[in-house]
Structures are given as structure tokens and as C-alpha cells.
Amino acid sequence: MRDYWLSKFFYDVQGAAAEYRADRAAFMARYPLKPVHKAAILADDVGTLARFVNPYLLRFYFSASGMKDDEFIRRLREAAPAEVGAPHG
Amino acid sequence: MAELVEIVAASHGPLIVRDWHKVLPAHQQRLTAAFRALGARLSRAKPDALVVVSPDHWINFFIDNLPNVCIGVGEEHEGPPEPFLKDFPWRPVPGHPALANHLYETALYSEFEPSVSHRMTLDHGFCLPLWRMELERLPKIVPLVINALEPPMPRVSRCLAWGKLVAKAVASYPENLRVAVLATGGLSHSIGEPTMGAIDESFDRGCIKAFEDGREKPLVDFLEGGMSAAGNGAHECRNWVVAHGAAGSRGFELVDYLAVPEVYVGCGFAAWNLGAPRSAI
To answer: Across the interface, which of B57, B58, B231 has its CB nearest the CB of A88?
Structure first.
């Protein structure tokens, strides 16, 4: 299942990473994000967010927000399979 | 009449450029050699136009408007927006609107309904192989986007049909034109999933064997049955299937295959046989 506004937020961060990093709260405020998604973003909760967006967008977002791949992969695997165990593609 | 003069495929993992310094020297050497080998083949073929088959990695399209197939019909296309491709040498990228529109019309009259873009941005999927192949001269590019990122995606059999449609369009193009096809992406890799970083060499070897063999049904069955378990990036094998169909399903010559954990991708490079047709399925 895809959440439109969470996906849109991730999509837009790709092209505005520096702006986002400078003021995350202000950037996030432009989107009608659900409270659970806002909380997950603020907590860098990879596992929760993975349930609602395309995996490529998830990766692009965390890369743009400054998380190293090793840490991103560690969090993905920590959350699997219960939270991010959906089939590939 | 136009003719197909070369059909090749190459992986396009972005870390091949972005994290090149982290790639083992032996892998660097083989990747460079493979890209150059394909570049040499394309240069020898002297194509006027190059149909490049790739997914769009959330650059042109989003879930508010997500075509499964899109043809770039513009006179030119935007170069890659990724910062690590800032030195990509051809900007804007020249298009071939006459061939692209002919492909579009041929599709519609053959009961295919792609979308079109008159100004497409070509991301690393298109541009990384073009750059790394060190082409002497960039042909005019006709981008053909096949959705390989967001399910549901086109069936493998449909991608094969799309390849045959490309061949049909080239064969019916009314002017002399040398046309090549470059399919990019694959083989196994996983992005943004718990298996990210995993490379499924068994899948990759089976995939290569099926393409080499050439027969359509075993290839379609193998990919439909195995792609989803080989990582979401493996869905890009659809692009190779388009190339396979364009080449008449005659099998291909593997230029190289190597699993490169540093870039998360089972990297494949191949060139299709354009000679006498093999026996059918």
C-alpha cells in the first residue's frame, strides 16, 4: 500500500535535500502527513515508513536525508520480515 | 527502410559511478572492459539512432501519473539530474522525433497504447551506460521507458511483444536509418528492501542461460517465476526482454557477468545475435 503524501514528500526531498536538511520541520509542514508518518520520519523509523512507500523512494529519501547505506540496510533488516517483508516489486 | 544494426544490454547501477572509488580494482577493470566492449560494438555499427530501454527512477513520473510504457518523442531530452552524473558530456541529449513518433504510431496501430513525452529527463538508467561505453559519437536517442519500479508492471511476455514492435517499427520506417537498441538495468539487485545488497548469482546465471538459449517460452517462464525473488532491481530484466524481442529471440553473446557487491548489482553485459533466425519455441 502506498501513502500518497508520504510518497510525495519523499519524492520532493530528492530534489531539495539541502533545504530539507536545513529545516526538516518547515519542509515537512508543507505536506498533510499523517501523525504516524510524521513521527516515523522524525524517528528515522525505516521499518514503519517502508510499509507505505516504494522501496526506491525510501532509499532515495534516507540517502538524501544523510543516512549511510550500512545503517539504512541494518534498520531495514532489523524491521524485516514483519514490517518490510512485502514481496519484491 | 531502416535497419537494426546492433542490440546490446548493460547494467546501470548508479554506484558504478557514484562510488567508483570503492569498487575493487579487479571489478573496476572488468566493468570498464565490458562497457568499452559494448561501446566498441555500437561505434562499429554506426547507428544514426539508438533506442534506449530503461525504467524511470522517479524522475519523470510519480504515482500521480505513472505510465507503464512511455516513448520520448522530443527533439532533445534533458540530461541526468543526479549530481554524480554532472559531468555527463551530452546535454541536452539529442532525440530522434521522426523515429520516435513512428514507433508511437506503429504501437497504436498494433494495439499497444504507450504514453509519450515531448521533453523527457534521462536519468542514470539511460545515461550511465551511454557515458561509460565511451562512445565516439552519441547517436540520436529514442528513450523507451518500461516501468520496473512500481507494481503492477508489464508482463514479461508483453515486453517481448514490445521488442518485436520495435523491430516492426524499424523495418517499416520509410527512410534509410541505422538503428541500434540498448537495454539497461538488471540483473539481480535489491534496493530499499531488507535484502538490499544481496546479489542472486543463481538467478543471474539462469537468466543469462535463458537469454543465450533464445527460446521465448522458457525465458518468459524463468523470469516470471524468478524475478520477484531476485530483488526488486531484477525487474529491470524486462528491458533485456524488449531487446531480446527486437533481436528476434535469436540468443545473445554474453560479454561479461560479475557480481559486484560494492555496487549491490549482479552486473551483466551482452550483445544479441542479429543473424539467421533460430528455430522458434
So the answer is: B231
